[in-house]
C-alpha cells in the first residue's frame, strides 16, 4: 500500500530535509488539490503531518485537516502536535481514519497505551522517527525531530508488545527527503522481530527502484512524499511497480 504524504506548514505543502525545519522546500500547490490528485492517481490512503503542530506541540491546522479528511475521498491518517485525548477524539470525529502518535509514544507510554485501549488499535498508529548512530543503533527523536532520546528504539517498542498495538510508522530521519532509498536493514529487522505488527515505512524513497526494494519484503505500507511532489515518478507507477 502506497501512502502519499502531505506535510503542512502555514497551510502549504512542504518537505523537510532530514527533519530540519531550517531546510524546507515549499510547494505552491493547494493541499486540497494535491490530495485530489492522489485520489485520482489511485491512492486509498493519505498520510498527513501538521509540522506546525509537531514543532509547537499542539495541533495547529485542524480545520484544513478536517477538509482533507472529509472532501477528497481518501482515508486519512494524521500526526503532528497530538498531545491529549481530546485532540485524538476531535480528529476522529472530523473524519480522520487513524491518528498518528509520535513523541508521546516515547515519553508517555502509559498514557498512549490507554488511548490504544480507549479508541481501538485500528485507530491509533505509533510513529517512531529515528536517528541511527555510528554503531547502527536506532534512537527515537521527539519534539518535531529536534531532540534525540537515549533509549534505543527497540527497547521503546518492546514496551508496547502487550498493549494491543497494531500499526507502527518508522522514519529514518537521516534519509527523509534525501531520495537515497529506504533503510531496508532497519525495516527488515523490525518485521523479523515483531511479525505481528503492521509496519509502514517512511523516508528516503526517490526512485521506483527504491519502491521495489521496499515492496520486496512486503511492508504494510510505504509513505512517499518529495518524490511525488517533484515528479520523479507518478503515484500510478509507484502503485503498479
TrEMBL record:
It holds the Pfam family His_biosynth. The active site is at residues 7, 129. It comes from the Bacteria. CDD domains: HisA. The keyword Lyase does not apply. It catalyses: 1-(5-phospho-beta-D-ribosyl)-5-[(5-phospho-beta-D-ribosylamino)methylideneamino]imidazole-4-carboxamide = 5-[(5-phospho-1-deoxy-D-ribulos-1-ylimino)methylamino]-1-(5-phospho-beta-D-ribosyl)imidazole-4-carboxamide. This is 1-(5-phosphoribosyl)-5-[(5-phosphoribosylamino)methylideneamino] imidazole-4-carboxamide isomerase.
Amino acid at each position: 500500500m502506497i501512502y502519499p504524504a502531505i506535510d503542512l506548514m502555514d497551510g502549504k505543502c512542504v518537505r523537510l530535509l532530514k527533519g530540519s525545519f531550517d531546510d524546507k522546500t515549499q510547494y505552491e500547490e493547494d493541499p486540497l488539490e494535491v490530495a485530489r490528485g492522489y485520489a485520482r492517481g489511485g491512492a486509498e490512503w493519505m498520510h498527513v503531518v501538521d509540522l506546525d503542530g509537531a514543532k509547537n506541540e499542539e495541533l495547529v491546522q485542524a480545520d484544513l485537516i478536517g477538509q482533507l479528511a472529509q472532501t477528497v475521498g481518501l482515508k486519512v491518517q494524521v500526526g503532528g502536535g497530538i498531545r491529549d485525548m481530546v485532540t485524538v477524539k476531535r480528529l476522529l470525529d472530523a473524519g480522520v481514519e487513524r491518528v498518528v502518535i509520535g513523541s508521546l509514544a516515547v515519553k508517555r507510554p502509559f498514557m498512549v497505551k490507554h488511548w490504544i485501549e480507549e479508541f481501538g488499535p485500528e485507530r491509533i498508529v505509533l510513529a517512531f522517527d529515528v536517528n541511527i548512530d555510528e554503531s547502527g543503533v536506532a534512537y527515537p527523536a521527539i519534539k518535531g525531530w529536534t531532540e534525540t532520546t537515549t533509549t534505543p528504539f527497540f527497547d521503546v517498542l518492546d514496551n508496547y508488545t502487550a498493549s494491543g498495538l497494531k500499526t507502527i510508522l518508522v522514519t529514518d530521519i537521516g534519509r527523509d527527503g534525501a531520495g537515497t532509498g529506504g533503510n531496508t536493514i532497519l525495516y527488515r529487522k523490525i518485521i523479523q522481530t515483531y511479525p505481528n505488527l503492521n509496519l509502514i515505512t517512511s523516508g528516503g524513497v526517490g526512485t521506483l527502484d527504491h519502491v521495489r526494494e521496499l515492496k520486496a519484503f512486503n511492508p504494510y505500507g510505504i509513505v512517499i512524499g518529495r518524490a511525488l511532489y517533484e515528479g520523479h515518478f507518478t503515484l500510478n507507477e509507484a502503485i503498479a511497480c
